Amino acid sequence: MNAMSRKAESFDFMFPPSERRRRLPTNCRWPLSIALVAITLIVIFFAYHNPSLSDSNILSGYSLEEIKPSSDSRYSDLSRLIPQLYKPFLHPIDAETFIGENEVEYKIAQNPPRFTKSLGKKVLLLDVDTRALNGEGGMMNDHISYHDLSPHTAGMLSHYLYAMIHGYEYKFIQAPSYTDRHQTWVKVPMIREALKTYDYVVFMDADAVFHYHHLPLEWLFNHWNITSDTMLAMALDPDADFNKDERGNVNLNTGFIIAQASERTTEMFNIWEDCVTDNKYANCSKWRYEWSHEQAAFSNYLRYEYTGPNEVISLPCAEANGYPKKADLGCTGEFVRHYWLDKGATVGALQDAVTQYAALRLHDQFHRHMKSTLVNATGTTLPLKEGEGVVV
């Protein structure tokens, strides 16, 4: 048995083989606020107060010093606790395969893999919006009710959670507004600006979320063959006439973008933003306001400009676009769910991203401490006779 196999086996107690796998039903969702409180209390209590901490592999690799509160506001208690909660579930970055929830096996395209270690803060997960988002249930509202959580907020919180789990950076840019085109265009210059600081920028629309929060981006990069030459990777849209460019090819969807920093990438983003001036591409100005805006501009013009090996990667719609209800279109969003016509589903997706893992950790915690949490009184008979008892 090789080291990779042994490493993968260590996660079986959380994600066992198919014949023993038990998954939470999608309709079994606890209130998110309660789950988050439970997560925090569980990890804080056992990290700081469990005398057998040194014997517990749940927090292996973390010293008491590492989990103490930091004076750096960038690293709040929660940003340290969340990675510890999800640590036992994390899929190895260098694993050759990943088995999805429907027992489909996915393999990496690069073997040996290009990425073998976490990229950490070299990766930015980016949200961009021109709106205030300070209404009821909005991301920028200082106080929101759980029951008023908007789908937009749920999507952004899902991105924030995923970044914390894997140690990536997260930023929300409240962008300035354009006066000469539709506001969906703002993602183009904002991604370009972010690439001045980060090696990789992963942009997501608020209605797009990662399906497997324990699956690192680095593994997906290996799977999707993100090379040193790659500038952009985007998912194909569903194969329908209204999703095709003027040459009859299916459009690339800008709701999920992987961008890698390079001079050539910066050049491409500059040309992309300037496309509507018609200086380089005649008639690109039609996409100032006509749907699908910046997406149509890229699909009609720029993808045919940058045709080097792996420069622009078209990700399968089945893996990085759509959701299961759109299986008839061939877009089930195995890794990235994009809920274009069911935006409210992001709330349930966020709930699942928290409660699935928290429930399994709670169950594991119970079993690890059964000497103190379980009273086995099955050896007695009821009613109890005089002098008999159950020691609790």
From TrEMBL:
Keywords: Glycosyltransferase, Membrane, Transferase, Transmembrane, Transmembrane helix. Belongs to the glycosyltransferase 77 family. Belongs to the glycosyltransferase 34 family. GO terms for biological process: protein N-linked glycosylation. Gene3D superfamilies: Spore Coat Polysaccharide Biosynthesis Protein SpsA, Chain A. GO terms for cellular component: Golgi membrane. Residues 184-325 form the Nucleotide-diphospho-sugar transferase domain. This is Nucleotide-diphospho-sugar transferase domain-containing protein. GO terms for molecular function: glycosyltransferase activity. It comes from the Eukaryota. It comes from Talaromyces stipitatus (strain ATCC 10500 / CBS 375.48 / QM 6759 / NRRL 1006). The lineage of its organism: Eukaryota, Fungi, Dikarya, Ascomycota, Pezizomycotina. The chain crosses the membrane at residues 30-48. The keyword Chloroplast does not apply. The keyword Lyase does not apply.
